Structure formats: C-alpha cells, structure tokens
Amino acid sequence: GITRHYKFDIKLKNVTRLCHTKSIVTVNGQFPGPRIVAREGDRVLIKVVNQVQNNITLHWHGIRQLRSGWADGPAYVTQCPIQTGQAYVYNFTITGQRGTLFWHAHISWLRSTLYGPVVILPKRNASYPFTKPYKEVPIIFGEWWNTDPEAVISQALQTGGGPNVSDAYTINGLPGPLYNCSAKDTFKLKVKPGKTYLLRLINAALNDELFFSIANHSLTVVDVDAVYVKPFDTETLLITPGQTTNVLLKTKPHYPNATFLMAARPYVTGLGTFDNSTTAGILEYQLPSTTTTTRSSSAAKKLLKPTLPPLNDTTLATNFAKRLRSLATAQFPANVPQTVDRRFFFTVGLGSSPCPQNQTCQGPNGTKFSASINNVSFALPNTALLQAHFFGQAKGVYTTDFPTNPPFPFNYTGTPPNNTFVNNATKVVVLPFNTSVELVMQDTSILGAESHPLHLHGFNFFVVGQGFGNFDPNKDPASFNLVDPVERNTVGVPSGGWVAIRFIADNPGVWFMHCHLEVHTSWGLKMAWAVMDGKLPNQKLPPPPSDLPKC
Ligand code: C2O
Q1: How high is the pLDDT of residue 416?
Q2: For residue 132, what pLDDT band results from cuts at 50, 70 and 90?
Q3: Cβ within 8 Å of residue 42, ≥6 positions away
Q4: Measured distance CA(28)–CA(13) in Å, rounded
Q5: In the chain, how many H helices and how many E strands?
Q6: Is the CB of 512 under 6 A from ligand 1?
Q7: Phi and psi for 296 in degrees, rounded to 5?
C-alpha cells in the first residue's frame, strides 16, 4: 500500500439549515466533513489541528487499528483531547477491510457536525465480488439541531431528563424538501439509465436507527461495516447509528417519466420523545445535455415517493438483520471462532440514579436518567485509560473488576426490580492476548425495552445469534450460526431481546464498547476491554507517538 496524507483543520463555520443560521464546528469549513479515500493496505496519516475553543478528538469508526490503538480516538479512553491550538497526527494502516466506514468526533456531542465518509477501495488490481459499479456515491445520514447540540446534552445531563430531539434528519447534510424552509437544501442523485451505482450508506445520526428506501427501486446489499456479505435485494433497509451499508442501485433501462424520492426516518422502540420526521433526497434521471426539447417536460414529471415502514416495525428490522450473512468464500472466508475461552453476559439498558440534593430532576419519578451495562454506568476518567494501561498506572484511574454477569438475575421481559439504581464506576475487563470471547447482550426492561446499537472499537465481531425474550444459556447456543454469520462492528441489540457475538482479542490495547445512540453513551451505556500484549514482538502495542495529547 501507499501512504495518504490529510490535513484536518478544526474550525468554525456559519451554516444555515431550516432557515436557522448557526456557527458549527467543522473540518476545513466543510459540512459534512471531507471524505477519506484509501485502498486496503494503505497507511493513512491525518494531521488534526484544533482551531476552536472545544476540546477535540476524532475517531475512525470501524477501522480495526491493529496495534495502533493510539490513533483510535475516543476521548479519555485512548487519548486525552486535542486542546485549542494543538495538533495530533492520527496514523494507522487499513488491514483486511474493504467497503465504507466513517470518521466522527468522539467527545461529548461534537459528532453532530464533525463527521465524514471513509471510503476503502479494494487493493489495486483486486476487484469487487459483484458488478463493477459505474459510479460510487457516499450517502451519509445525520441529525440537525437549530440550537447548539453541546447545550442540548449539557442541559439534559444537568436536569437528569431527556435531551431535546433534533429538528431534522439529513442526507449529506441536507434535510430535504419535506421540511419547512428546506426545499433548496435537498440532496440530488443524478443518474443515467441502465447503470449500476454503488451507494455507500452511513448512519452518522446521533440518536436514531433509520429505515431507508428509494421509490420504485430495489437495492442490493453487498457489504456492511466494510465486510462483504452475500448479496440480497430489499426495498427497505435498516441502518443503526454506527453502521455502514453498501448497496447496488440498478437504474431503469430507459428514461422514466418520473423522478423518485429517497427517504429515511427512524425505527423507534421503547420510551421517550423522538424526532419522527423524514429526510428526503431526489433520484433524478439526467437526460443528455443535447436534448433540449424534453428538458422542459422534466418539471412536469411525477415525483414518486417510497413507502417507509411504521416507526415501530420490529418485524421488518428483525428480518432485515437475519438476512445479513458473511460472504464466506475461499477468497473472503468467515473466520468464526469455533471455540470459546471466556463467556460474558451483559445486560444493557436504561436505569436511573438518585437526584443530587438541592436539585430537581426531570428523569423517571424525579430521578436522573442513567444507562448501564451489568448495572455499571461507566464514568470516563480525567486521564486516558490506554496510557494508564500501557504504563501500568491503573491505580486511581480504573479497576479491573467489570462484572462478567449481571449483579442480580431476573426476568428481563417481566416486572422490573424495585431498585433501578445503577453504580457509577470506571471498570474494565482484562483479556489475555488472543482470548476467544463470546458475549451475549440482553436488553432489559428496567425502564422500557429499547433496541441499542452496540459498537465495539478495535475489532469486528461475528453475530452468531439473536432472539427475543430472555436468553437461555442451555438452549439458545444450539442454534448459533458458526458458518456464515455477519461480521461487523455495530449490532442492534433487539428491543426486549438478546444478541450473541464472538470475537478474538487479537488487538492489544484498550477498546471502548458502547451504545451508538449518543444520549445513551452520555448516560453511561459504555465500558472498555483491556487486551494484554502477546509474547511475540508483532503482538505488542508500540509506545505512544510523541505528539499524543496530554490531559
Ligand atoms: Cu462511532 Cu465509539 O464510536
């Protein structure tokens, strides 16, 4: 591979959406941010210079970061933030991945405006295991607040209540024609008939899983989270925050007498208020520029709209997830761990914590919203976990007793326990190098069942099983798929159900795992794995780069 250099200047920029102008934090004044393009095997160097008042870190979501954990990016996990006026060079090599990923800020809620695509092309002279596309188009979903998202989350954390929902979803930063004062801010995909387009879909929204569909066109799913899958056709797809999906769009053989809307809106389970609006873009067949006569009629063309499923269509969500299978060919094998060294059972869900004295809290029954894994609501330290781990200075920063099982067993579909209170702590799980891990994540009904897109840094995992109700350790493993399960970095834990994943801890470092609904991360639905070095030189994490920011 070759080395590719990028320079990301973090600076403010005035941007107008929905007739509201505000100053937002951007990379190089672009919104959404610039695209990173590289081939599998390339080294990528991104120099990030912070020219704003906020502390910044950037994360290369889904990049495996094999022995390059210092470049992973989550604030206070792998690094201290880049402070005003400082710079840091993220340096990593793309290994064994091809498809679409994305980058985003990984501190507070700054990823609401700091995000952009990462396009990973196959190695030079390697081809796709599907029709060569005529064109490739990244489509990145986001959320727009008319107010400052940093104020939205800080107010929610202070009052203990839920944050204000966004004012719009966006496609490539544009809300589209279904919102007031937004028709001119519409993403247009101009296509020719009889061609195959590769759409690189990315959900960079903060708090909602999304259904996506294009009127009168079906989509062929070929890759998720930068891993090829067995191709299948679908009218509608589901994409959770943190997930990426490559689809082929085959255009109609002849110019149709219509234009087509593409649209995305949430899949929502569980409680709370949410933005139930719809973002849309336009798919337009572009006539050759020589045909002037037919041009005028294009304005009169019918606009066809897709039918999106109801907001709570769990059947569709489940069936879509079940259709995803690894390609599992000789060239692209699915290396599913067949044996397990350590088993973990994590409950994930919302709970609450006591309201501090002299405060009125707007959470359930006057408490504060909290979220937890095995009842631990993870607290970020004020230095970085990875440094503490690497230099053997865990004391006072974190403890290694993260519970491998819930503190109290109960019926996760039934009556919630009386005490919903969570413990705030900074606990990690320590894994010896190359441990084969099986992790079952069970959605609890402590404060209403809700699906959670769980994201693991530093690894891909195989989704070997999923189901509704209580996971049964005696019965359910018998039906695990150990042949061609989908391999990815973010999986939806079904509402009121469970998901089982397997991965090999072959990447030394400290790796964050969290719900990619940003509000749940803010409330504590996060934890970290500390993977020890192996014995061989190429199984060790190298020392930190000299420009690694200090706290
Ligand atoms: Cu896309 Cu830890 O995040």
Answers
A1: 66
A2: very high
A3: 1, 2, 3, 4, 93, 94
A4: 9
A5: 4, 33
A6: yes
A7: -60, -30
Question: Which ligand 1 atom is the nearest neighbour of the CA of 61?
Answer: 1
In short, whether 514's Cβ falls inside 6 Å of ligand 1 is: yes
Distance from the first to the final alpha carbon of the chain: 34
Is the distance from CB of 59 to CB of 92 less than 8 angstroms? no
Q: Ligand 1 atom 1: the closest Cα is on which residue?
A: 61
Question: Domain spanning 1-126 has what CATH number?
Answer: 2.60.40.420
CB distance 242 to ligand 1 below 6 Å: yes
Atom 3, ligand 1: which residue's CA is nearest?
61
Task: List pLDDT tens digits, range 344-386.
Answer: 999 999 888 999 888 889 988 899 999 999 999 999 999 999 9
Instruction: State the Cα–Cα distance between residues 357 and 368, nearest whole angstrom.
Output: 12
110 φ/ψ angles, rounded to the nearest 5 degrees: -70, -15
**Ligand 1 centroid, distance to 539 Cα (angstroms):** 24
Question: What residue ranges do the domains of the chain occupy?
Answer: 1-126, 130-325, 342-539
Spatial separation of the C-alpha atoms in residues 306 and 212, rounded to whole Å:
9
Asked whether the beta carbons of 113 and 107 are under 8 A apart, the reply is no
Whether 520 lines ligand 1, by a CB cut-off of 6 Å, is no
Cβ neighbours of residue 397 under 8 Å, at least 6 residues apart? 381, 383, 385, 388, 426
Measure the CA–CA gap between 119 and 103, rounded to whole angstroms: 10
Within 402-486, strands assigned E span: 423-425, 428-431, 435-443, 452-456, 461-468
What is the ipTM metric for this complex?
Answer: 0.99
Topology annotation, domain 130-325: Immunoglobulin-like (2.60.40)
Q: Is pLDDT of 532 > 60? A: yes
Q: Taking a C-beta distance cutoff of 8 angstroms, is the pair 126, 136 a contact?
A: no
Into which CATH architecture does domain 342-539 fall? Sandwich (2.60)
pLDDT in tens, 450-467: 889 999 999 999 999 999
| Tokens of residue 16, six digits | 């107008």
Kindly give the distance from the C-alpha atom of residue 101 to the centroid of ligand 1, in angstroms, as a whole number.
11
pLDDT tops 70 at residue 273: no
Q: Decide if 232 contacts 245 (C-beta within 8 A).
A: no
Closest by Cα among 192, 119, 206, 120 to 163: 206
What is the number of other CB atoms lying within 10 angstroms of the CB of residue 181? 12
Domains 1-126 and 130-325 share a fold: yes
